[in-house]
Amino acid sequence: MNAPYDGDRGQGTGGAGSSGGPPTPPGPEQVPPAPDPYLQAAYDYDPYRSQDLSAQDPVSEALYDRAAHPPPPPGYYEQPQPLYQQPPAAPYAPDPRIWAQTPPPEPDGPSRLLPYGDDAATTQFVGVDDLVTQASTNHEEPDAFAHLFRDQEGPAGPPVPDRPEPAPAPTPPKSGGGRASGLLKSSAVMAAGTLVSRLTGFVRSLVITAALGAALLGDSFTIAYTLPTMIYILTVGGGLNSVFVPQLVRSMKDDEDGGEAYANRLLTLVMVALGLIVALAVFAAPFLIRLMSSTISNDPAANNVATTFARYCLPTIFFMGVHVVMGQILNARGKFGAMMWTPVLNNIVMIFTFGMFIWVYGTSHESHMGVQTIPPEGVRLLGIGTLLGLVVQALAMIPYLREAGFRFRPRFDWRGHGLGKTVKLAKWTVLFVFANQAGVLVVTQLATSAGKASGQNGAGFLAYSNAQLIWGMPQAIITVSVMAALLPRISRAAHDNDPGAVRDDISQGLRNSAVAIVPVAFAFLALGVPMCTLLYASSGPEAARSMGFILMAFGLGLIPYSVQYVVLRGFYAYEDTRTPFYNTVIVALVNAAASAVCYVALPAQWAVVGMAASYGLAYAVGVGIAWRRLRNRLGGDLDGSRVLRTYARLCLAAIPAALIAGGVGFALLRALGDGAGGSLLALLCGGIVLLGVFVVAAKRMRIEEINGMVGMIRGRLGR
Predict the structure, then answer these.
(1) CA-CA distances (angstroms) from residue 93 to 10, 46, 707?
(2) Cα dihedral sign for 43, 48, 49, 54?
(3) Distance (Å, rounded) from C-alpha 342 to C-alpha 410?
(4) Higher pLDDT, 598 or 339
(5) CA 8, 9, 10, 12 torsion: positive or negative?
(6) Pairwise CA distance, residues 125 & 130, whole Å
(7) Which of 416, 519, 544, 546 could form a disulfide with 533 if both were Cys (CB 3.0 to 4.6 A apart)?
(8) Which pLDDT value is given to residue 213?
(9) CA dist., res. 281 & res. 277, Å (int)
(10) pLDDT (tens digit per residue) in 562-590
(11) Gap between the Cα atoms of 523 and 664, Å rounded
(12) pTM for the whole thing?
């Protein structure tokens, strides 16, 4: 056979045998293989080999049709200059197991390498962007090149070059999505419990009004029933709710036993203090009734009934305090549901008690019962049932505490364990509550006097309390639930001296609660009358209509009231109780002064309506002062522009919704009457119109929080 032609050897990238590098010289006992005439010099004249990196790909080489694309004749390309010579080839042939490796998976969550400087924590991915969030999913794929080496593998397989494995991409820390989801879960549990509690509280209020009416007898029971709550808040309630939560969190973080000894000392101290307070309050019941309402105390029959009710109700102060301390211990351990769900038991007991009263004596509209005609057995039945409800509520917390691993053991070693600091901090909170309750005392005195002077039902303190109960429901369900879950986190951020985290959490609490608080406030303004004529129809149309006007006056004050509540949590996180005290003094003074002006300037039947409007005005003044002080405390930044923009846009979306819904409700009441049927239809139609117009307007204005809530709801519904 003729020798193969190799006259132009060397003009390629390395000769015929240099596809993987220079030929290896044969060893002393190794015979070089005979050259293959069909493969020799097959790639010598490839002009692309020195330029095309894909030529190292065995698949591309197998698919390259050299018959259709013959190489140019020899000598067509000049010899490369030494300066531009190709680097030496790798010592081994290309191995797909090296260059075809699967890239390391991306971390969980959206990639931080987003275009245009978007923040991954706030960017909402839809459509194609969902691919970015799923980039971390690692699907096992079969090796497409394994068959190329299957015939060459020996017992141990081919030698694999010793190349370093590519380092995995660093996983960035996860964004606050997990933290936000935990917050939403905790808030949802508490909101559900508070919703059920408030709904049963509504039923309780309806049954009380149906049993005792909205005249002097109803006011007498309401005064006695409100008195224990006021005393509890004045003494220890404010400190327990605001000061002791940060202290419990710190004891859990710093103490070796996880704060259990501190919690036992606190619970023991509160029980001893509340026992003494109850004994003094029961003894001073007539004086307390006079302090609450001179109008009732000057009427012998009303004073006797109110004092008897008060002596049954005042022992509930002890069980209120025990329930709150147990609930705060659970909150500090991340258990938020029990404190919101156990009040349902109290409401059920009271509903059963007043239901028994109605079953025996009939409703107030049927029996025309008053302070002179109510029998002592009826007073005893209502008093024992009211006390039993709080007892059941407090005892129901014990199983939750045992489940959380807490065992109560009375401890009287109060000195030297931080309780003195806590009591010192609570001093200003007690003064804060005292200032707040001083304003409530003024309103109570004026409202009972105006109700008796008006000579009509639904113009006194019971009507004021019933309207305020409806008005405060969104605050308790939404704002309180959100901030109860946020307060431990804000306390930790304040303890770690991280004002940025405190600011972000307060901003989040304000904006998240505003999504529901703002439209509900306008709904009270537009639909307050049909709401009350439906709920309190048993008290008569005149009383129910008066309560509706009071609820309308309360309406818009819900917005500053909610903002004030959130802002004050920032001061409590820093253990600053003095600033909230001064702020509340201002609020109480404005409320008392404006209520006194309404009592003097307005007719008696409209005086309580003006007092309800004064309540919101006072909190609007207080919000401006508290906001400025907290902003200075956090270094001059409280995310004010973003929060104000959110509230302003929500109000702009709610105004046309309230106008249209109010017109629809008023027209239906005029056409169908303000009975139960007409009120229900007016409330349903007006509410649907208000919600629809508000959502459409908010989406048109592209309010971020509304879009986020709608997206979350649609995601939950699977749409």
Answers:
(1) 20, 18, 57
(2) negative
(3) 23
(4) 598
(5) positive
(6) 6
(7) 544
(8) 81
(9) 6
(10) 999 888 888 888 877 778 878 888 888 89
(11) 12
(12) 0.62
